[in-house]
Each structure stands twice: as structure tokens, then as C-alpha cells.
Amino acid sequence: MENQVLTPHVYWAQRHRELYLRVELSDVQNPAISITENVLHFKAQGHGAKGDNVYEFHLEFLDLVKPEEEERLNKLRLESQGSPETLTSLKKGYLFMYNLVQFLGFSWIFVNMTVRFFILGKESFYDTFHTMADMMYFCQMLSVVETINAAIGVTKSPVMPCLIQLLGRNFILFIIFGTMEEMQNKAVVFFVFYTWSTVEIFRYPFYMLSCIDMDWKVLTWLRYTVWIPLYPLGCLAEAVSVIQSIPVFNETGRFSFTLPYPVKIKVRFSFFLQIYLIILFLGLYVNFRHLYKQRRRRYGQKKKKIH
């Protein structure tokens, strides 16, 4: 009779503190799942490799299962054939394409700025906005998707760091540079665009490879390291652009307004720019702290053994 017992296909995946099992059955009915000492027992009616039958298996672990760990049995999920794999493939394909488009966009900016600098020298600083703005607009508008992905759970990225970077960059790009022609010819535009693109040409290909479960050690190290000098430099360049824009906004009066009667006080936009400078460095602290934790989790700190 033992030869008549049908065993389903079981897939095993393991992380540091979690174990995942996927039993390849569809239309499952009356599943019986239990753990006895160090053995996981499974039995259910369902459609598997041998058609619609009763399938069962017993999986022996190397050690006893702690009683409290039995509550985490929900990590074993019964999945219909094809549908979860299809959804996972679509998700990975979508994220791969998004990261690919962003990588190509920022690479185009980085390569063009580098080539122009070697050909034109310092003269390339002053027309950076007019030659690179369209692509930067495209990439930064597309980056809204990244924050949405984090907010709805498509990616595991925390929402706040994504939102801080999105709002900060778009404020500099659309308000400081985009609305003031006087700012578009300044050299600081070059340094802002260059630091942004340098960070992203390593970040997005890292995410691309993660979508297909590949880990290139050199790229991984660069992704978790280049931000250390580039994020403060980028923040400094953004702060310089804001400081340089204050007299321009004061002179033009753009975005300034007068409070209604009886106050009748004129509020200059430069007042909000000064507040933004404080927020800018607070945002740098939040993102720097987040990235530092990521790097620490990835590489850890080797504890010295005390003899």
C-alpha cells in the first residue's frame, strides 16, 4: 500500500530566520498540516502531477521544532499551479523594466555630461540645464513610481526615504531651476545633475540584477558605498543652488505674496527657502541613517573575538 501514496512536488526556500515551503497542488481540499517533534506532516486532497488524488509527505528536520515556532506554520502556503508564479514573474518583469529605463536615462545624462566636460571643459557647466533638463525631467517624474511601489508594497523599500528624495530633488529641479531662467545658466546645475546621476547609475542596475536573483559583488559594493561621499556632496550642491536662488527670487518677487487686510505683510518666497535649507539637511540625516543601516545589514560588523 505504501507504493500507492502520492507525494506532491515540494519547493524549499530558506532565509536567515525563515523557511518557506511551496506545495504544488491546486484545488486543495481538507489540508491537514501538523508538526510532531522534528517532522512536518502534510496530507490533502488536490490536483497535482498525478491528477486529482490524495497527496501527502513527511519532512524531517535536523532538530526539534520549538512549540512557539509551530505558530509560524503560516509560512507554508498552498498555491495554485501557475498563478502565483505568473504574478511573481510579472512583478519582477515590471520592476526590471522600470529600473532598466531609469538606468538608461541616468546613464545618458552621466555619459553626456562627462563627454561634454572633457571636450568643453568648464564651459560645459553653464549650459548643463539646456542640454540635460529634458532627460532629467523624464527620470525624476518617473521616479514617482518608485515611491508608489514602496507605498503599496510592491517593493520593500521604506516610504519615507523614497518620499524625501523624490520631493527634495523635484523641488530643486522644477522650482529652483525650472521656474527661474537666471538659475539655469549657473555652474551649480552641473554639480547637482552629476551627483544625482552618479548615484543612480549604480543603484538601478543593482535593483535590476536583484529582480533576476543575481548578485554581482562589485556592483553590490558600489551600490552600498558610493552614496557615502555622493549624498553629502549632492546635498551641498542642492543647498548652494537654494542659496544662490534667494536673491533671484527676492528680485523677481516670484511666488511671494501679501497677506490680506489688516495684516498686509509681504511674505517673500525666500523665507520658505531658508526654512527649506534646514529641512534639506534633516532629510540628508534621515536618508543617510537609512542607507547606513542598509549597508550595515548587508555587510555587518565583524566582532573582534576577546581572548
UniProtKB/TrEMBL annotation:
<feature type="transmembrane region" description="Helical">
    <location>
        <begin position="226"/>
        <end position="249"/>
    </location>
</feature>
<dbReference type="InterPro" id="IPR008978">
    <property type="entry name" value="HSP20-like_chaperone"/>
</dbReference>
<keyword id="KW-0472">Membrane</keyword>
<keyword id="KW-0443">Lipid metabolism</keyword>
<keyword id="KW-0812">Transmembrane</keyword>
<keyword id="KW-0444">Lipid biosynthesis</keyword>
<dbReference type="Pfam" id="PF04387">
    <property type="entry name" value="PTPLA"/>
</dbReference>
<feature type="transmembrane region" description="Helical">
    <location>
        <begin position="269"/>
        <end position="288"/>
    </location>
</feature>
<keyword id="KW-0275">Fatty acid biosynthesis</keyword>
<dbReference type="InterPro" id="IPR007482">
    <property type="entry name" value="Tyr_Pase-like_PTPLA"/>
</dbReference>
<keyword id="KW-1133">Transmembrane helix</keyword>
<comment type="pathway">
    <text>Lipid metabolism; fatty acid biosynthesis.</text>
</comment>
<feature type="transmembrane region" description="Helical">
    <location>
        <begin position="95"/>
        <end position="115"/>
    </location>
</feature>
<protein>
    <recommendedName>
        <fullName>Very-long-chain (3R)-3-hydroxyacyl-CoA dehydratase</fullName>
        <ecNumber>4.2.1.134</ecNumber>
    </recommendedName>
</protein>
<keyword id="KW-0175">Coiled coil</keyword>
<dbReference type="GO" id="GO:0006633">
    <property type="term" value="P:fatty acid biosynthetic process"/>
</dbReference>
<dbReference type="InterPro" id="IPR007052">
    <property type="entry name" value="CS_dom"/>
</dbReference>
<keyword id="KW-0276">Fatty acid metabolism</keyword>
<feature type="transmembrane region" description="Helical">
    <location>
        <begin position="186"/>
        <end position="206"/>
    </location>
</feature>
<comment type="function">
    <text>Catalyzes the third of the four reactions of the long-chain fatty acids elongation cycle. This endoplasmic reticulum-bound enzymatic process, allows the addition of two carbons to the chain of long- and very long-chain fatty acids/VLCFAs per cycle. This enzyme catalyzes the dehydration of the 3-hydroxyacyl-CoA intermediate into trans-2,3-enoyl-CoA, within each cycle of fatty acid elongation. Thereby, it participates to the production of VLCFAs of different chain lengths that are involved in multiple biological processes as precursors of membrane lipids and lipid mediators.</text>
</comment>
<keyword id="KW-0456">Lyase</keyword>
<feature type="domain" description="CS">
    <location>
        <begin position="5"/>
        <end position="112"/>
    </location>
</feature>
<comment type="similarity">
    <text>Belongs to the very long-chain fatty acids dehydratase HACD family.</text>
</comment>
<dbReference type="GO" id="GO:0102158">
    <property type="term" value="F:very-long-chain (3R)-3-hydroxyacyl-CoA dehydratase activity"/>
</dbReference>
<keyword id="KW-0256">Endoplasmic reticulum</keyword>
<dbReference type="GO" id="GO:0005789">
    <property type="term" value="C:endoplasmic reticulum membrane"/>
</dbReference>
